[in-house]
Specification:
The structure is a homodimer. The first copy, chain A, is α/β, with parallel strands linked by helices. Helix content of chain A is 47%, strand content 15%. Chains A and B meet through helix 4, strand 2, helix 5, helix 11 and helix 12 of A and helix 4, strand 2, helix 5, helix 11 and helix 12 of B.
Chain lengths: 341, 341
């Protein structure tokens, strides 16, 4: 897992180089269609959440995450003639995703597949395949395949935006590379804090919400502990009631933009209630309110998620080692997960 | 809380009587619009998840849940001229929801508000208000305001369907009433099992997924314990790794339809891994695989959620009493929750 975490700057650079030239094709395929429907599960679903926000905020297109059972189990008859689907699957072989993509195509959708495997079932069947260049991933917890999915999604959304140059991708690989060094010691410290608490909750908001869910999923599947990943709002509408000193919270914040102030306020509230607060990203005011602050990338909010998972991955990997677990192959999981029928 | 749980059959009957005549207005308002966008938080969000599935499965209209921060924080400029928004808020005074509804109206959406308070800000501003008839709810955990929201949503979706008589609402209040008696002893038994385990996970799929999230939220906010609410698929794509004998699982299943077989298989898998399995609803084969089986309503899958939360509410109330907590007013929560800005 650690080797693959370290490979992310190169994997991001390769993926961006490969996919940025596809922007005109993407724009043409999606021309005139107002809706983007992401189809994904697991880590890919967390990547899709980033895509959903970015589509709406940056490209002004309504976006949503499909409920695959609507296709696979209920076989609902929807009119998708105004929709582009974006199916996201590392292997490109998750049957449920392929089946949902096929269902959408029959109902009028144009289909784009984001996968790490050229020639996979999903890529072959799609109108357009965006193949990430993560290389082979051996550890079960997704790291470089996840961040390269985010890169593919960001390229896709930039192609849908009126100004394709709205995102400046040039600094992404270097920003990820710097975090590998800069975040390491704080990640070890954070792992120490998480080791000492029974219950963990991860939260984020808006464009960084998907990163929070991804850090939660990584913690759960790699460190084999129950972790709740919640949106900022969902936390405030209920579970805030169970916050006390037994709880460790991980807050994932954007470096700038309209959500940072609220996340900083949340860090203060959680700290006041006695919870341990680990911060990832954010600005200086945010970091000052956290018990441990892991630095985020020097990228604007819209692109920050492409590297913002890196400190979280380092923290998860450090915690797994502390717990005597093998971060490369947690029990109970296989690399290609099927949702059975 | 117990009194309000018991009032649900009457509250459902009043709400259905009041709202069923509005179906032609709803159909007219939504005519020609292919998209339904739900706007909600907390329990109302769980009701909206039911609405999302029902819209797609029964009415053939694409549906999604809004990310309110896209409106309130990013102020994204979307074309909503093909969309009907359905804002759901018990009080009708949640600012974030009202602000998102106003944002949508400016961008071309037709707006429907579902609220329990006639004349509330949300109701006044909407093109059409569907006012539920739950009566005043005093306990902080939503019960009758939640199930009457589901009734309003089912009425709305039936109005969007080609056949407005696709759902037979006649049996709903009586089905809920029967559960108040039939589910009580099993609910006490289930509370005993949950009392003995540290970690709780609630899951469901498709049309009953929202009910699972609502039971999870009720458990968390009323019994003050960390609970994860996860979709069937998300459970299988990761957290299944942390299932063992320390975990209590609550599975919420439909009485019929395409998802029951998978839920029954899941009950078997979880049981084999040593987890405690509490079942709510489902069919006889499903119940046989659970350690305790709470009966669900005698209603078809599409309407079952209107009463399926009742056994879960009874279980939550019983557990709160066992834990020495006051189910009417858990700490840390107020009745009208605002997501700050």
């Amino acid at each position: 897992m650690m080797r693959e975490i370290s490979e992310q700057p190169e994997a991001l650079a390769r993926t961006l180089d490969a996919l940025l030239p596809a922007r005109p094709q993407i724009a043409q395929l999606a021309a005139g269609r107002r809706h983007v429907l992401f189809v994904a599960r697991g880590s890919s679903d967390n990547a899709a959440i980033y895509g959903r926000y970015l589509c709406e905020v940056l490209a002004g297109r309504q976006a949503a995450l499909a409920a695959p059972s609507v296709a696979t189990h209920y076989v609902a008859d929807l009119d998708l003639s105004d929709t582009v689907t974006v199916s996201v699957s590392q292997s490109g072989e998750t049957e449920e995703i392929a089946e949902t993509q096929a269902w959408a195509a029959v109902r009028g959708a144009r289909t784009i597949a984001i996968t790490n495997v050229d020639g996979s079932a999903l890529a072959r069947a799609a109108d357009l395949a965006l193949v990430t260049r993560a290389g082979v991933e051996l550890a079960v917890p997704a790291t470089k395949t996840y961040t390269t999915q985010l890169a593919a999604i960001a390229v896709l959304v930039s192609a849908l935006a009126d100004r394709p140059d709205a995102l400046d991708f040039g600094g992404v690989p270097a920003a990820a590379a710097r975090l590998l060094d800069r975040a390491r010691s704080a990640a070890e410290n954070a792992a120490g804090l998480l080791d000492g608490t029974a219950d963990t909750l991860v939260t984020g908001r808006g464009i960084t919400y998907g990163t929070a869910l991804e850090v939660a999923l990584k913690l759960e599947e790699t460190c084999l502990r129950p972790v709740r990943g919640l949106s900022y709002a969902d936390l405030k509408h209920g579970p805030i009631a169970v916050v006390d000193a037994d709880l460790a919270t991980v807050l994932v914040a954007a470096p700038d933009g309209p959500t940072v102030a609220g996340m900083t306020q949340l860090a203060t509230t959680l700290g006041d209630r006695g919870a341990t607060v680990v911060g990832i990203g954010g600005d200086a005011a945010f970091g000052a309110k956290c018990d441990v602050a892991l630095p985020g990338p020097e990228l604007p909010e819209a692109l920050a998620p492409l590297a913002l998972a890196v400190p979280g991955q380092l923290m998860v990997e450090a915690l797994a080692r502390r717990l005597g677990l093998d971060p490369d192959s947690p029990r109970g999981l296989s690399k290609v997960t099927q949702t059975d029928h």
